[in-house]
Amino acid sequence: METLGHQRLFIDGKFVDSSDRYDTRYPYDEHVVGTVARAGESELKAALVSSATAFAKTRKLSRAARANALHYISRGIAQRRAEIERAIVLCTGKPIDYTRGEVSRAISVFALAAEEIARFGATYEPLDFDPLCPNARGIVERFPLGTIAAIGPFNFPLNLLAHKIAPAIATGNSVIAKPPPQCPAPALILAELARDAGLPDGTLNVISADPPIAERLATDPRVAMVSFTGSAAVGWALKARAVRQRVALELGGNGALIIDENTDLEYAANRAARGAFLHAGQVCISVQRIFVHRRAYDSFVKLFVAASEKVGVGDPMDEKTLVGPMINRAAADRVMEWIAQAKAAGAGILCGNRREGNVLWPTAIELRNREHRKLRVWCEEVFGPVATVEAVDSFADAVAAANDSPYGLQAGVFTENLEHAFEAFRDIDAGGIIVGDTGVFRVDTYPFGGMKASGLGREGIRWAMEEMTNPKMLVLNIAPAKRQ
C-alpha cells in the first residue's frame, strides 16, 4: 500500500515537527497513507511572529524580485508535479485525470501572478480639474496589507491555496496557510519552493491545526486578512469573529443549470453529467439543480440518464474514472441519507442510489412537485454525486427557480436565444453566469466568487491582488517656478 510518510509543519523557512499528530487515510479503501504534525499554541505563535517579521521585508521587495520568485515557484510545481499529484489522489481520492488538471492550473496561477505584477499598482490621478488646485498632481499606489491567513479545502488542496498565496506574494504580503487536514502536502511543497526561490524566511508558513487554533487566525491582530474557501457555515462564523481583519470568503453552492428548448440536448446532457458528477460532486460549483423547458424535458432526461450511467466510477488512479470516492465515510453516509429522504418523499430515482464503501454512483433525482423543493438534495448543498431534474414552463420560470436558493456562486445556461442569455446574466443572482456550458467552468484570471450565502469578495489573480492591498494617495502640489 502506498504511503506518504510524515508531513510536518513549515515555519520560518524550515520544516518543524510537533509532539501531536494524526493519521490521514486514502478515501478509496481507507488505508492509512501518512501522519501529519498538528500545530498547537506554540507553533501558531511561532508562525505569527515569523510572518510579521517576514512582512517587514516582503513589503520592500521590488516587483522584479516578487515576479522572479513566483516564476520559480511555478517552475518548481511543474518539476514536482508527479509528487504533488500522488499526494492529492492518496489524500483526497480525487481522480487522477482531474488532479493533473488542478496541478496544471496551479502552475499557471503562479506564472500569471508574476506577469500581473508588471501591470498592477501605481496609477496617475489628475487633480488640477479643481480650480483651487491648479498645480496638484496625484499618484495612487497599492500597498500590501500584512499577513494573510489562507485557509483552503480538501477538494482543491493545491490550486485553491495557490489562488490565495500567489496574489499575496505578488503584492508583498506574507502568508500563513492552513491547508485542509486531509492533504497538507501540496501546501508544504509550495512553502519549500517559496523559500528556495529566495523569499525571506516566514513569507509562507504552513500549519495544520484543529479549528480552535485555526480560528485564532481570524482574531489575532497580527493577521491583516483572512481568505477562506470552504463551507458556508464555517466561513460566515469566521467572518463574525474577524472584527478588524479584512475577509474574503469563497463558499458553497447548489449550482443551477438551465436547459432551454432550443439547444443541442445531447451536448447539454453530456456536459451536465460531467458537471454534476465530476470528483463525486465534491466541487463548490458542481451542477446540482437542473431546470429543463417542458418541451425538451423528456428528451433531455433520457439523454442525461444515459450519459450519467456511462460515467467512469471507482478507482481514482484509473485514467477513465470521473467519480471517485467521497472524502470519508461520514460524507458518504450523509449523501445516501439525503437520497433516501428524497425517495421516501416520492421523488423519482432515475439512476444511481448505489454505494460501495465510500464510492457513490451518479444519482439523478426527478422532482415531481413543488413540495420536493423542500428536500435537502435541492435546497442545501449536497457536495456529492447527486443532481435533481425538473420541468419548467418557461425560461423566466427557470431563472426564478435558479434564484430560489440561499446560494449564488455560478450558474450554467444552455440556450441559442441571445435574449435569454442576457436575461440570465441580468437576473440570476450568482457571481458567474456561464452560457453554453455548465457552471463548472473557471478561467483563473476572471473575478470568481459568489453572492448571497456563497461568499464575499472575489478571487482571480488581479482581483485578489486588489483585495490584498490598500490604495494610498500621493499628492504633489508643486507651484510653478517663479520667473527671474
Descriptive terms for the model:
single chain, 484 residues, alpha/beta, seven-stranded mixed beta sheet, 37% helix
Overall shape: it is globular
Strand order of the largest sheet: 15-18-19-14-13-21-22
The number of helical runs is: 15
Category by helix and strand content: alpha/beta
Structure description:
The chain has 484 residues and is α/β, with parallel strands linked by helices. 37% of the residues lie in helices and 23% in strands. The chain is built from 15 helices and 25 strands. The strands form 7 sheets. The protein has a 7-stranded mixed β-sheet, sandwiched between helices. β16 and β17 (359-360) form a beta hairpin. α2 (63-79) crosses α6 (185-196), α4 (96-116) packs parallel to α5 (159-170) and α9 crosses α10 (294-309). The termini are far apart. The model has no long low-confidence stretch (mean pLDDT 96).
Topology:
Blueprint: E1 5-7, E2 9-11, E3 14-16, E4 21-25, E5 32-37, H1 41-58, H2 63-79, H3 81-92, H4 96-116, E6 123-126, E7 136-144, E8 147-151, H5 159-170, E9 174-178, H6 185-196, E10 204-206, H7 211-214, E11 223-229, H8 232-241, E12 246-250, E13 255-259, H9 265-277, E14 287-293, H10 294-309, H11 329-344, E15 348-351, E16 355-356, E17 359-360, E18 363-366, H12 376-379, E19 386-392, H13 395-403, E20 407-408, E21 410-414, H14 418-427, E22 432-435, E23 451-452, E24 455-456, H15 461-467, E25 469-477
Parallel strand pairs: 1-5, 8-9, 8-11, 9-10, 11-12, 13-14, 13-21, 14-19, 18-19, 21-22
Antiparallel strand pairs: 2-3, 4-5, 6-7, 7-25, 12-24, 15-18, 16-17, 20-23
